[in-house]
């Protein structure tokens, strides 16, 4: 089995290849069982373990294990740690172990961009990022692969973190600034993307401008939420997997409040197969809610393996 560290894994990933590969993967058939979810308690520490398998006719089987420990921020550690193993789907022989954290970050950012390619206005250029973690850092490059992003704003519950990331992005050539007034930043953004582990809503529906696109890719359990129920009122909502309807606190709250109907939600597959057109007009508000699909991990890991 080939072991690929973070640098080696990253070397075989770019959004110009990964976003179209995800689109093709969602348009085709694959087997993606529901994830296994386990709560972990170790003394006073609490975490969640997800086990996510997927396989396809292309001949690959992948299994990701991801550990989520929100309390890690107080320790100066990332909140998510993942491992990934790619196998031959015909024989079960292990092929490779790419870096699971890189796979997770890149496929999540790529799914965010793929959603925006269908749902953000064609002239969207102002991107607001909530969060400063591994995934958040990739979002300007991901969205710039599908829209002409020329202004990036970042907000974080720790202002110094937002300032540091904005400075890093500026050094990389982005027109980037840190925001301290979240409401003002949301009101002026074309695309609002949330990559946090928040358990209380950060974005309010009354702040979202007509024609804006709200991208929610951080929360993935019923206890987590990044947007309040009003964000879904009058908006068209899309999900990466139908599991989101039972797993995402944002959606569960909105359905309970009556601002979202489950039968009105459109799946990513429908967009990728062309059976749904996505955004209807320039004034419509859209929401993309992702809880993560093992198909996305399998797609990214396959690109890495075939390029290694």
Descriptive labels:
about 300 residues; alpha/beta; 8-stranded parallel β-sheet; 6-stranded mixed β-sheet; 10 helices
Give a short synopsis of this structure.
It contains ten helices and 14 strands.
Task: Write out the strand line-up for the largest beta sheet, numbering strands in chain order.
Answer: 9-8-7-10-11-14-12-13
Mean pLDDT: 95
Could you estimate the helical fraction of the residues in percent?
25-40%
Cα end-to-end separation: 12 Å
Helix/strand-derived class?
Answer: alpha/beta
SSE run:
EHHEEEEEHEHEHEHEEEHHEHEH
Radius of gyration based on Cα positions: 18 Å
Give the DSSP E fraction (strand runs of 2 or more residues). 15-25%
Query: Which shape, going by the Cα principal axes?
Result: globular
The number of strands is 14
How would a textbook summarize the main sheet?
Answer: 8 strands, parallel
Low-confidence stretches: none
Task: Output the number of helix runs.
Answer: 10
Description:
The mean pLDDT is 95. With 308 residues, the protein is an alpha/beta fold. The chain has helices at 6-10, 15-27, 100-119, 139-144, 159-171, 182-188, 244-247, 249-257, 268-272, 294-307, and strands at 2-3, 36-42, 45-55, 60-68, 80-88, 94-97, 126-130, 151-155, 176-178, 191-194, 213-216, 235-239, 266-267, 285-289. Helix 2 (15-27) crosses helix 3 (100-119), helix 2 packs across helix 10 and helix 3 crosses helix 10. 31% of the residues lie in helices and 24% in strands. It has 10 helices and 14 strands. The longest helix has 20 residues, at 100-119. Helix 5 links the parallel strand 8 and strand 9 (176-178). The strands form 2 sheets. It has an 8-stranded parallel beta sheet, sandwiched between helices.
